[in-house]
User: What shape does this take?
Amino acid sequence: MDTARLADGSACIFSVYEARVVWDGKVRQILVDEADADALVGMRLLKGHELKMQVRARGKVCIKRLPRK
Assistant: This one.
């Protein structure tokens, strides 16, 4: 369990789970926060990637690995 402070100042208690995901061809162990919402991708997974999205109903989302420096 964890707690977060929401924008309106109220506190929200939620469960946290361990999960394994295949990301960019590799299995990664991550923590997943329970939320009563659509699935979200955390910023830590997006590190080193480019994110493009069309902000509209059924809009396209593209995640592409950036070249290594």
In short: Residues 16 and 24 are 23 Å apart (CA to CA). The chain has a mean pLDDT of 89. Helices lie at 43-46.
